[in-house]
Amino acid sequence: MKNINPTKTKAWKELEDHFKQIENEHMKDMFANDDDRAEKFTLKWEDFYVDLSKNRINEDTRDLLIKLAKECHLDEAIESYFGGESINQTENRPVLHTALRTDKNAEVKVRGENVVPEVQNVKAKIRDFSNEIIDGTRKGYTGKPFTDVVNIGIGGSDLGPAMVTESLEFYKNHLKLHFISNVDGDHVQETIKNLNPETTLFIIVSKTFTTMETLSNATTVREWFLKSVPEEEVSKHFVAVSTNLEKVASFGIDPKNIFPMWDWVGGRFSLWSAVGLSISLAIGYDNFDALLTGAQKMDKHFKETPFEQNLPVQLALLTIWYNNFFKAESEAVIPYSQYLDKFPSYLQQAIMESNGKSVDRNGEKVNYETGTIIWGEPGTNSQHAFFQLIHQGTKLIPTDFIGFKRSLFGDKTHQDKLMANYFAQTEALLNGKDADEVESELKSKGFSQEEIDRISTFKVFKGNNPTNTLLIDKLTPESMGKLIALYEHKIFVQGIIWNIFSYDQWGVELGKQLASKILAEFSVKSVDNHDSSTRNLLKHYIQ
Ligand code: F6P
């Protein structure tokens, strides 16, 4: 991969000049001056209709952003990404979550060896295991079929499976899914308090099998299990997903109950691997496979589509436009589907752990902004919570609106109300409401001129707030796979242009190390070796 400081490219300089011309233009005028604007900036692909026209861009902006991508050699980087080069250079690993959903006849080489057959073997193991648990052929130690499945993992070993099983709840079977992630003992106890060890399956998911939270929770659960069940029955109820086969075995998991994964799959991109076993159990293997098919279709679209029509590329370039030129610090993601409640927090890990970096690929401190802050909640709830700030606050917050044409239960009355809000918000964010409109509205309601003068400024919305509208036919395993992969590739494109390494996460290590040190100090009650603030807090805690 090339190491190019994006700010040193010709396109960046041109974008800076272009920004000065466009920064104060109102999108309302852009629409008024161009009847074809919506059509020009809408991308239609399969069941996705993506309207990017409500952005503070014109055709020059789009061309210049594409020029920037080209100057940063995005096309070559995409080849390296899919081709299995070690683009995660700080850990010397390829980044191949795409190989998990590739065609079974494809060839993807890691260090000279085609990994696709091995991926297919693990998929077959996921399929057989899921089928046996779902249809009750595989039973608990007393011969009863399983009723509950508990996923024990954190970060990428939790957020993806938890988000997808909730998103695809409509497609769920009889198994009840639970997720234990936090090392907070109350989280474990709340989850296990109503579980029956006879009918519960535990999946311990940890890529490294060294994560404190996961190992503590797994140990607590195992102890709870062994209170009522003989040790030789553990193998019927505990399985693990990991790259670290030795550590899993020393935890006492039967080797045939280990679902392997690989170091070339990053934790936050691993739901497509055996990390997604809980997904396959919850919705059945065929639906899990459809999720992977959706992602595979998005991979193909990303790899083969010119940048102008390429969904991940266009979304990534817009983020760069707002982050680096408008200096917007955050982006909101608002799904108009309660099923997607966890999607924003899933994206927080995927995006912020990947692109929260301040050193470039040359090892030098960057002189430009990188990763954006991601936040969001489903609409319409979020409208009644934080939308006020997006509409009338001082900050520019580009927002993705994700909606579906059809609801899953087919209740058109509710769906129309939901979607009316979805469309109305993007329209309001675009147009705002100027002083004249406010005044005539108040007049028509019988307000006196004096009252109008007093309150009208508070009622003015400036508008001109950018939004992306992603309108998808229906929430299905396949469309969900496409949606997740869309954001995965968006992350990649941003990392390439910002010239950072998106696939390591050294920043989370320091806190982990200090936590281990402090934990050891609790047992000897010696907490002197800290700054005065931390020392006082620790003393207060252990007293
Ligand atoms: O906290 C960072 C992190 O390393 C994530 O990237 C990862 O998804 C999570 O911890 C869990 O790691 P593991 O799967 O190895 O337990």
Automatic annotation (TrEMBL):
What keywords is this UniProt entry annotated with? Cytoplasm, Gluconeogenesis, Glycolysis, Isomerase
According to its UniProt entry, one GO biological process term is: glucose 6-phosphate metabolic process
Catalyzed reactions: alpha-D-glucose 6-phosphate = beta-D-fructose 6-phosphate
Q: InterPro entries, alphabetically?
A: G6P_Isomerase, G6P_Isomerase_C, Phosphoglucose_isomerase_CS, SIS_dom_sf, SIS_PGI_1, SIS_PGI_2
Pathway(s) the chain acts in: Carbohydrate biosynthesis; gluconeogenesis; Carbohydrate degradation; glycolysis; D-glyceraldehyde 3-phosphate and glycerone phosphate from D-glucose: step 2/4
Q: What class of enzyme is it?
A: isomerase
Gene Ontology MF terms: carbohydrate derivative binding; glucose-6-phosphate isomerase activity; monosaccharide binding
Q: Which residues form the active site?
A: 353 (proton donor), 384, 512
One Pfam family recorded for the sequence? PGI
SUPFAM superfamilies, alphabetized:
SIS domain
In short, the EC number is 5.3.1.9
Superkingdom, taxonomy of origin: Bacteria
Stretches of the chain forming a coiled coil according to its record: none
> Mind naming one GO cellular-component term on file for this protein?
cytosol
On whether Cytoplasm is a keyword of this UniProt record, the answer is yes
Localization, per the record, is: Cytoplasm
- Please state which protein family the record places this protein in: Belongs to the GPI family.
Role, per record: Catalyzes the reversible isomerization of glucose-6-phosphate to fructose-6-phosphate.
Name the record gives this protein? Glucose-6-phosphate isomerase
What is the protein's species of origin?
Christiangramia echinicola
**What taxonomic lineage is listed for the species of origin?**
Bacteria, Pseudomonadati, Bacteroidota, Flavobacteriia, Flavobacteriales
